[in-house]
Amino acid sequence: MLKKMSLRMKLFALITVVVIITFSIVSAIVSYRSIEMARVDAFSLADEMSAKYSYEIRSELQAARVTSESLMTVFKTLIERGEADRDTLNAILQNSLRQKEYIISFCVAFEPDKLDGKDAVYAGQYPLYGESGRYAPYWSLQNGEIDVEPLEDFDGDVWYAGARDSGTEYITDPFFYEVQGTSVLMTSLVFPILIDGEFIGIVSSDMALDSLQEMVSHVNVSGLDEYTEIYSNSGLVVAHPEDEYFNQSVHAISAHAMLTTEPSLARKALAIANDYAQSDFSGEMDEAAQAEERSRAEAFAQNLAAYAANHNSVHLDLTQMTDGMAKALLQLDGNRLQTAEQAARAIANGESFTVTENGYYKVYTPIQFSEATNPWSVAVNVPMSKVLQKSNNIRNYVILVSLVGIILIALVLYVVTRNLTKPILSLAEAAKQVGEGNFHVDIPQTKNGDEIGILSTAFRTMAEKINDLINKLTQNSEELERKNENLGELNGMLVEARDQAEASNRAKSIFLSNMSHEMRTPLNAIVGMTAIGQKAKEPDKKDDAFQKIKEASAHLLSLINDILDMSKMEANKLELSPVRFSFARVAEEAGDLIRVQLKEKAQTLTTEIDENIPETLVGDDVRLSQVLINLLSNAVKFTGERGEIGLRAFVKEKAGNGVTLQVEVSDTGIGISGEQQAKLFRMFEQADNSTSRSFGGTGLGLALSKRIVGLMDGEIWVESEPDKGSTFFFTVKLEQDAAEKKESPNPTENAAEQADSPVDYTGKRLLLAEDIAINREIVIAMLEETHIGIDCAANGREAYEMFAANPGQYDLILMDIQMPEVDGVEATRMIRQIDTKTPIIALTANVFTDDVETYLESGMNNHIGKPLDYTQTMEMLEQYLK
How far apart are CA 763 and CA 779, in angstroms? Predict the structure, then answer.
């Protein structure tokens, strides 16, 4: 059908359909939004009315609550002072009843003999006292007359038991009570009297609730036929515009609404009601309650039978429906049952709840009289039909306007499309010829400058430029061929990069293998020498084993430090720690550390230190020493028996306070080829993979040395030939100490002196927090000769508790960091809350700068790295215990 239609009709039909769809969508959106806005207005109205009623109800009951609380305070004060005789209490109650118009009765009730121990004396003195003589008068005011009667057997009543069992104020559900012959709807506000935490009685005020019923009887305040209900905490109706709803539960009201709105369910409900009336209630209530429940169930079943037979003329009596009967009937409608359960739960918990039910928007709002009392709830019901009436009017108006608009637009479109189609058809024919390759076609052009004229001009321009485009495409094709050639070169570079990455991975694998071998070597020495030392009986043999264990441990610690430095280096966290130092001493100590290897291979070390090097420099002596030791150790390792090692250092440049040193380490070893030199300073690589098998090593030393020298603004390089030895050069920039102070005495010598004669700390006491038993044993053994007293804690919590028990007992605390329950950092923070002076020293294997800063921020004074160094430990004790 569409193929037979002209372009003009197709265009007209298309635009008309689009307009109709657009107006329809707009109408639907307006209708939907108006309905949603109406619903929001309804809920807002319900919320506003709920808040208003909540305030009014709370105001009604608050005065009675305050009065009860005041009387409780007065009676408690009199009892505690021994002035609470019965005549005084009765006089207070009568006087209060005359002054409080909103209260119709007061009740005071005490436990047997808890007031004055004279219950037997007053027994039988009616009307103030009953047969027991127990003080429990009920004072009431009706029609201006005050009367009193005694209460008997009230221990199980909810108004008394509720306050007694909870020990807090209690508000009862509304109830009818005979006051001077008149049945009055009231609620009781009860306050317990507690003496030294012991319950001895209550004070209760009863307030008539006529005002609540009067309050909700006014409906249609806003003109929407809304109405209000008030519920107690147990879900029973306190006030309702219709009297038959009073004292009915949420479930009963929902079941009644189900049967009145869906009479077809009445016969199914009758079967359920008859079954319920024959149920056994013995396990749920006492005999009197059972009889009452069964009587009401049978009466409702009879009423329901008549309603099922003729629901148009028979009224379904809500007052006969019990809560249990209602829950059984609601099984016919799961949604209503769920809604009723949610509403009852919200009322009981004092929560807001909103639901659409029985054609009404219903909003439950809690009323909380105090923190200790159970909340009530106000429910405002707004009819949906009234709310939606306005939105329906808006929707109908929008639909009418849309229909008129569509008709007018369709007429205009018909005229416009007829004038548009002729030039468009001409352009279509021209486009067909262009599509066939004829770019010189005569394209029609209108005389005016409207859209069609612009289109024809653009079409002509397009045809002219297509030829230009074809020429450019030819040129681009040639350019693409050239780029393909470049892409081939790029692919070759990528292959080369891939090969380098694979080589790096292989280097890491070789490094791990070498590291495993290097670490197992000192570990094997430690394990073997330990076994030899244990079996040896001669002291010299034991000393020799211990010395070799010490050397192997130092070697293993050096390997671990290299690995840690590698980790820092890869994370760009390798840092310098500048101090004042003597370069001559650093060089001497580095030479001392390789003396044993030199002696084993009968090698000689020649040292030449330039006299122009300043006596005192500022820089990181530890890192500088690390570079020297790495280079000297490599020289020893790769030089044969009776070889020669050389160490030379001189001032290369001076500029102001800055000094550039150049250091050279030479050997007469195996030498290095040019190809091998290119790999020397890479991480995880050695000059040759066979090197690790022949000479050992991890491949980390030179890479670390290069990074350290770089941090000191220097450079490192090598000159070597195979079988002709090697010379390693490096430069570093340091600062000359402006004061040019004398170098302090050698700490190693001082430490040796201290080690020979440790300080006696008799009378001092130390707290050691360490979870590993062997670590505690090491510290105790290390400090044994100092005679210092040591107490041990197995974790941070135990250390805190021991310190807190006697903060002045300890002169120093050694605190491990990683411990169970409470770690060292947290334990330090806890101790610093009670003491800020006692020194706390961290014992830790984490010696990174970030870690140490964390320890100091927590309140620690210093730290000692693991494994513990005897000399450093003794220096730390002297610093904080001198």
Answer: 18
**Would you say how long the chain is, in residues?**
882
Reading the block at residue 477, the tokens are 């094709």
pLDDT digits (tens, 9 = 90+) for 66-98: 888 888 899 889 988 888 889 999 999 888 888
Q: Which SS3 state, helix, strand or coil, does residue 791 take?
A: strand
Amino acid 833: pLDDT? 94
**661-686 per-position pLDDT tens digit:** 999 999 999 888 888 777 777 765 55
Q: For 800-827, what is each residue's pLDDT tens digit?
A: 999 999 988 999 999 999 898 899 999 9
**Tokens at 832, concatenated:** 């610093």
Spatial CA neighbour of 64 closest among 105, 109, 107, 102: 102
Instruction: Return the SS3 of 230.
Output: strand
Q: Report how far residue 844's alpha carbon sits from residue 828's, in angstroms, rounded to the nearest whole number.
A: 14
How far apart are alpha carbons 529 and 523 in whole angstroms? 10
Count CA atoms closer than 13 A to 621's CA, side-chain side: 15
| Of 223, 219, 188, the residue nearest 206 (C-alpha) | 188
**Alpha helices per DSSP H over 285-322:** 287-309
Which are the contacts of 361, defined by CB distance < 8 A and separation ≥ 6?
39, 42, 43, 46, 354, 381, 382, 383, 384, 387
Cα angle for residues 726, 732, 737 (degrees, 5° grid): 140
Q: Which of 174, 356, 327, 336 is nearest to 252 (CA)?
A: 327
Q: Which whole number is the average pLDDT over 583-611?
A: 88
Q: Is 859 helix (H, G, I), strand (E, B) or coil?
A: coil
Average pLDDT of the chain to the nearest whole number: 80
Which residues on neighbouring strands pair with residue 650, listed in sequence order? Answer: 662
Max CA separation in the chain (angstroms):
132
d(CA 68, CA 71): 5
Q: Taking the chain, what is the end-to-end CA distance rounded to the nearest angstrom?
A: 110
In this predicted structure, the answer to whether residue 54 has a pLDDT above a threshold of 50 is yes
Are the C-beta atoms of residues 216 and 117 closer than 8 Å to each other? no
For every residue of 531-590, DSSP letters joined together read: HHHHH--SHHHHHHHHHHHHHHHHHHHHHHHHHHHHHHHHTT------EEE-HHHHHHHH
Angstrom distance (rounded) from CA 73 to CA 60: 22
Q: Which amino acid is at 555?
A: H
Q: Give the pTM.
A: 0.42
pLDDT score of 180: 78
Q: Could you tell me whether strands 182-195 and 227-231 are parallel, antiparallel, or unpaired per DSSP bridges?
A: unpaired
Neighbours of 236 (CB within 10 A): 20
pLDDT (0 to 100) of residue 731: 95
Question: Does a cis peptide bond (omega within 30 degrees of 0) precede residue 127?
Answer: yes
